[in-house]
Amino acid sequence: KAGVTQTPRYLIKTRGQQVTLSCSPISGHRSVSWYQQTPGQGLQFLFEYFSETQRNKGNFPGRFSGRQFSNSRSEMNVSTLELGDSALYLCASSVEGTSGELFFGEGSRLTVL
Amino acid sequence: GEDVEQSLFLSVREGDSSVINCTYTDSSSTYLYWYKQEPGAGLQLLTYIFSNMDMKQDQRLTVLLNKKDKHLSLRIADTQTGDSAIYFCALPHEGNNRLAFGKGNQVVVIP
Predict the structure, then answer these.
(1) B111 with B29: CB under 8 angstroms?
(2) Within its chain, how far is the Cα of B11 from the centroid?
(3) How far, CA to CA in Å, does A111 sit from each of A10, A59, A82, B43?
(4) B105 neighbors B10 (Cβ within 8 angstroms)
(5) Mode of pairing for the β-strands spanning B9-13 and B105-110
(6) Torsion sign over Cα A79, A84, A90, A92
(7) Of B40, B41, B97, the CB nearest to A100
(8) A5, exposed or middle or buried, with CB in 10 Å at 0-12, 13-18, 19+?
């Protein structure tokens, strides 16, 4: 079956702009979580959505937001982009009730100029 | 918050064994995970171990867990060039699907 799909794979924005990233989970997976990966900070948890509700949130400013649709697809948005937002944004889906195994997409690489 | 520490780099000759180590602070995790990230790709779950186990073997992979010392290790036997990647140790933190990751250990396999 198809894996986790993230779009776009690469994008370049300038400071002050906003960006929306999309994630389609594996069919049947209802939980979607987002992570930011940077060389300096490593992998950091952004938020998790389950059944269209944010279930958990990491320590990121309010400029970072997300949502989940009824088909489990998820989007995350970053407003007023800063240079430090340049990162690989990874989406992961999972089946509720399992060991917490996450299936990751290949990520969206955001560069902020 | 959860603190997960890993060494950053390991170079190993093809055919030798690789050992990657990880220490953590939160002892309440039910599962502990090893993920692999190849260049330009997302993360892939390699293996996991239940917290009530000391060891788990899965083909060329051996996971050792020392709960007393809060130490987790991953041994890769007969390391191949395809094992060149970054390996992350991860634990659930404040929720099953919220993982705290180490900074990753880059493994370079020399032919």
Answers:
(1) no
(2) 16
(3) 8, 21, 10, 20
(4) yes
(5) parallel
(6) negative
(7) B97
(8) middle
**Interface touch B43/A104, C-beta < 8 Å:** yes
Contact at CB, B42 and A45, closer than 8 angstroms: no
User: Distance between CA A103 and CA A90 in Å, rounded?
Assistant: 10
Q: Does A42 touch chain B (CB under 8 A)?
A: yes
Give the whole-angstrom CA distance, residue A95 versus residue A107: 19
The answer on pLDDT for A97 being more than 80 is: no
For chain B, where are the alpha helices, taking DSSP H only? Answer: none
Q: What is residue B40's predicted lDDT score, i.e. its pLDDT?
A: 84
What's the number of CA atoms in the CB half-sphere (13 Å) around residue B2? 27
Give the mean pLDDT of A87-112. Answer: 89
Burial class from Cβ neighbours inside 10 Å (0-12, 13-18, 19+) for residue A22 reads: middle
Tokens of A87: 């990162």
d(CA B84, CA B107): 5
pLDDT in the model for residue A54: 93
Summarised one tens digit per residue, pLDDT across range B95-106 is: 767 899 999 999
Q: For the segment A9-57, what is each residue's pLDDT rounded down to a tens digit?
A: 999 999 999 999 999 999 999 999 999 999 888 999 999 999 999 999 9
Where chain B has pLDDT below 70, the residues are 1, 96
**pLDDT score for A98:** 58
CB contact under 8 A, B102 and A31: no
